[in-house]
Amino acid sequence: MQRYLHRWFVANYLYMNFDKPNVMVFPSAKQANISVKLHGTPMAKVTSCRYLGLYIDDNLNWTYHIEYIYNKLLKSVSIFYKL
Question: Are residues 42 and 54 in the same domain?
């Protein structure tokens, strides 16, 4: 499988940054001790990640994304208020 992925990346002129990939464990597998390695390097487990502009958390709810948008809007509103 690893050779095929490597060939696909080379054929499409892509490069994978091995520092960025993360692993997120969703609720149904919380109790399972899952470790994922990429080229022998363990990937970091995270509780939330950004995907296509949305923040997804490991409980599959919108709490983290809503807080992010709220804080972003709060900054903008305060700037408009001062103007």
Answer: no
